[in-house]
Structures are given as structure tokens and as C-alpha cells.
Amino acid sequence: MTDKLQVLPILPDTKKIDYPVISNVSLQDSIKVLSSIKKNIDVLTAAKIISVVKFANPELHDFLSAIDLQNGGEISVYFSNVEYPIVIGRGNEIKKVLYFCNFWNSLKGKELNNYLEYVDLRYGGHIFIGINEPNQEAEKKS
After folding, report:
1. What CA–CA distance (Å, rounded) separates 112 from 69?
2. pTM of the entire structure?
């Protein structure tokens, strides 16, 4: 997708794609290559999320790998440096992404990242985190 929100094809000789994947966009019509999709609310929302992450935390922006719009459902954002989704839902997406960018400054490099299952920002300005319980059997064997 270009900065003018035009759909671009992935060409066979493309060496590096340094843009996040925007998936499960809610569409009324099919998309044609090089057509403009700037009137699509989902695409605009994804573009805003990308811009906010880039502005608020350029380091984190480098790890932005995917935005799943779930066909009009809850929005999830994925970063390649962590193995859990950031669920932002719908509404106030920009504010929620800014919250996560600030929260990330406390999380980065911490062992807690190894135990997170998800970060959920859907509920009224609060950040909920899902924790994976360490496997007791695996700990006994090590």
C-alpha cells in the first residue's frame, strides 16, 4: 500500500517488504491492484495505527508486523519481537496504541514478555495482560 493508500502487488523479485501486513479488511467490493482504498474505514484505521506507532515509538515501529482488522471485528496488532497479540478493539484506536507504546517502555527487555499471552486495551483506558502459567513439569525437568 502506498502513502496514498493504493494497493500494490508483491512482485516476484521483491527482496524486502518492510511494511506490516494489514489483514481481514472489511470490504464492500473486491480490491484491484493500484486502485485507491482511502475511503475504506478499516484501511484508514490501519494506516493511522501505523503512523501513531511510528511517531510515538520509532523503535517499536520497526517490529510492527501485522494489523488484523478481523473483518470489522476487534483489531489486533502484532509485533515481531514478541509472541503475543495486542488487542485494541474498536474505538479510540489511536489513544489505545499510544497507551501501548508507553506501556512498552516498561515491558521491553523484561522477562515478563516470556509469560504474556496477550495485552488487551479494549476496556475503558485499562491495560489487561494475560499471563501464561509456567509449565510445572518443564520446570521440574530443568
Report:
1. 27
2. 0.77
Q: How many residues does the chain have?
A: 142
Element (H, E) at 66: strand 64-68
Give the 3-state secondary structure of residue 55.
Answer: helix
Residue appearing with cell numbers 486495551: 121
Residue 3, in any domain of the structure: no
Share of the chain above pLDDT 70, in %: 72
Which residue type is seen at 135? N
- 41-56 vs 93-107: helix crossing angle, rounded to 10: 30
Domain membership of residue 130 (yes or no) is yes
- Is residue 86 a contact partner of residue 94, using CB atoms and an 8 Å limit? no
Q: Between the CA of residue 114 and those of 13, 85, 104, 108, what are the distances in Å?
A: 36, 13, 14, 11
Provide the number of structural domains found in the chain.
1
